[in-house]
TrEMBL record:
GO cellular component: Golgi membrane
Name listed for the protein in its UniProt record: Glycosyltransferase 61 catalytic domain-containing protein
GO molecular function terms noted in the UniProt entry: pentosyltransferase activity
Keyword presence, Glycosyltransferase: yes
Membrane topology: Single-pass type II membrane protein
Domain Glycosyltransferase 61 catalytic residue range list: 323-408
Cellular compartment(s): Golgi apparatus membrane
Residue stretches spanning the membrane: 38-58
Record's keyword terms, sorted: Glycoprotein, Glycosyltransferase, Membrane, Transferase, Transmembrane, Transmembrane helix
Tree of life domain: Eukaryota
Protein's organism: Gossypium darwinii
Length: 512
């Protein structure tokens, strides 16, 4: 199956758009579609060799032999697990640990009761007040009633990166075994425990695997929640210092760097994640969408941006007369930001692109985000722009900073990156409400024409190379390719963007 091949193809994915979506539409079918679609998807899977996937969702020993059972239980058996409005573990009682391991992207465990951290043994204990003669479950190890292990990172299907993530033990124990493990810090709000390891350091992963899942998981607490972080990085806390207080009103805890026993009455370990760079309202308690997430970003960056603007004004105060005011009837030009890259996937004739865009009527800003560039500054640029152009890559994640409903995002798609470009940025950008234009370059616009024979599959059939494995995609198409835009061809997209923006502006003027 296509998606299964993709999984094999990309599962060892590396640093950037990394790996991938195993079972892309399996996930959708599983989570989002209503029952009839779930059934048709399952039927399709079962009949088209996808039945090998079925055990991931149901503990069928043999999917085929259970085909009839399966239809027999469709109205009750399945709905319990699949009804998105009542996800697994949605109601747990005091003193229990419940883990939902049904999603392919992440595991998540819930605990309620007398919860105490113990970082020297990478454990979180849940002390049960139940008497020792209680018939809870078989005793695992002495006083242990239940022992769950979890790696709280959202790329569960990528074994290579998961191997680097710290594992946490969630152990429920009888209270009478509680010696010398008294609370050093008592919290009266829940904990959300997650890792900032893995691919953290790449902006796409920071938002996709971290910040957005954190929003999804913690939004219900309305900032009354403490973040407990595994593989804690000071730089991460600093980089997201504007956003974090809008998710949690309390300072985050460095799980490994803080030996104190933190006590909670509720804890969630692991994060929920919906899809690439998005929030699915159907799966949220209060229907929040990616637009609500973006509104949170806007609130988060406002104080800093107000400060930056004031500073800039102070610098130029007293010089006001030097620059004549724009004439009243002279319309403001639409602003276009080019997210520029050096090296691989750079646009080698960027200066000509800039000229062409200016001729059409754009005010062009070239931005080259570095890992150290303050996010508020990038937000300020993009929130005040009407269009953004960039070559497929992690920096495209900044489309999240553009204003929904009135902005255009043009993604330049180098050879061999169609699928990743659409999956990681194209579709999510549309979900945010941007006008998305994907520009697939022609062979002539790729630097690979200089390296390969015109009949080489690298040029004629990129998908065959992608199928050979992620290393091929990465080495050939991501790391060794630059783009020389054919401006005759590309100009059409620029014009389309310009027309779209002027039309939107006119409409909003009419309404005003
Ligand atoms: C659950 O456990 C916590 C911590 O031991 C306790 O404070 C709370 O009262 C308990 N709630 C119920 C409903 O038993
Ligand atoms: C525990 O409960 C199960 C079912 O409720 C019962 O079969 C079993 O005998 C009980 N065990 C003990 C030790 O009470
Ligand atoms: C945690 O405990 C270990 C061993 O007792 C000690 O070496 C370390 O310094 C402690 N760390 C902190 C942050 O207190
Ligand atoms: C969420 O959506 C449901 C169904 O569309 C609707 O009934 C409900 O009022 C919505 N809730 C909020 C908070 O918008
Ligand atoms: C983003 O742009 C909108 C529309 O111009 C503006 O209302 C908002 O204040 C801006 N946000 C920030 C943080 O500057």
């Amino acid at each position: 199956m296509v998606q299964h091949q993709r999984y094999n193809q990309l599962k060892n994915g590396g640093d950037e758009e990394a790996a991938t979506l195993v079972f892309v539409w399996t996930n959708r079918g599983y989570y989002r579609r209503r029952r009839p679609k779930i059934l048709s998807f399952l039927l399709l899977s079962l009949l088209s060799c996808g039945f090998i996937l079925a055990p991931h969702f149901f503990s069928f020993s043999s999917a085929l032999s259970h085909l009839s059972d399966f239809f027999g239980v469709k109205n009750d058996g399945l709905s319990g697990d699949l009804d998105v409005n009542a996800p697994l573990c949605s109601s747990i009682s005091n003193g229990s640990v419940c883990c939902d391991r049904s999603h392919f992207r992440s595991d998540i465990c819930f605990m309620k009761g007398d919860i105490r951290t113990h970082s020297p043994t990478s454990s979180v204990f849940l002390y049960s007040s139940k008497n020792s003669d209680d018939n809870v479950s078989s005793t695992v190890d002495g006083d242990e009633l239940q022992h769950e292990k979890i790696k709280p990172y959202t790329r569960k299907w990528e074994t290579s990166i998961m191997a680097t993530i710290d594992e946490l033990n969630l152990i429920s124990k009888r209270r009478n075994s509680d010696v010398d493990h008294s609370c050093d810090v008592i919290h009266d709000v829940p904990a959300v425990i997650f890792s900032t390891g893995g691919y953290t350091g790449n902006v796409y992963h920071e938002f996709n695997d971290g910040i957005i899942p954190l929003y999804i998981t913690s939004q219900q607490f309305n900032t009354e929640v403490v973040f407990v972080i595994l593989e804690y990085h000071d730089w991460w806390v600093m980089k997201y210092a504007d956003i974090l207080p809008h998710l949690s009103s309390y300072p985050p805890i460095d799980f490994n760097g803080d030996n104190r026993t933190h006590c909670f009455t509720e804890a969630i370990t692991g994060l929920r994640i919906h899809d690439e760079l998005t929030v699915d309202p159907i799966l949220m308690k209060n229907n929040e969408s990616i637009v609500d997430f973006r509104n949170l970003l806007d609130r988060a960056y406002r104080p800093r941006i107000t400060g930056l603007i004031r500073k800039a004004q102070e610098k130029t105060s007293g010089c006001a007369l030097a620059t004549p005011k724009r004439m009243h009837n002279q319309p403001k030009k639409p602003k276009l930001v080019i997210l520029s890259r050096k090296g691989s996937r750079a646009i080698t004739n960027q200066n000509i692109l800039v000229k062409a865009a200016e001729e059409i009527g754009f005010e062009v800003h070239v931005l080259r985000p570095e890992p150290t560039t303050e996010l508020a500054k990038i937000y300020m640029e993009l929130n005040s722009s009407d269009a953004m152009i960039g070559v497929h890559g992690a920096a495209m994640t900044h489309f999240l900073f553009m204003r929904p409903r009135c902005s255009v995002f043009i993604q330049v798609i180098p050879l061999g990156t169609d699928w990743a470009a659409e999956t990681y940025y194209g579709e999510p950008a549309r979900k945010l409400g941007l006008k998305y234009i994907g520009y697939k370059i022609s062979r002539r616009e790729s630097s690979l024409v200089d390296e390969y024979d015109k009949d080489d599959p690298v040029l004629t059939d990129p998908s065959s190379l992608n199928q050979k494995g992620w290393e091929y995609t990465k080495k050939i198409y991501l790391e060794r390719q630059t783009v020389k835009l054919d401006l005759t061809r590309f100009r059409k997209r620029l014009l389309r963007a310009y027309d779209y923006i002027t039309r939107i502006h006119l409409q909003s003027q009419h309404l005003a």
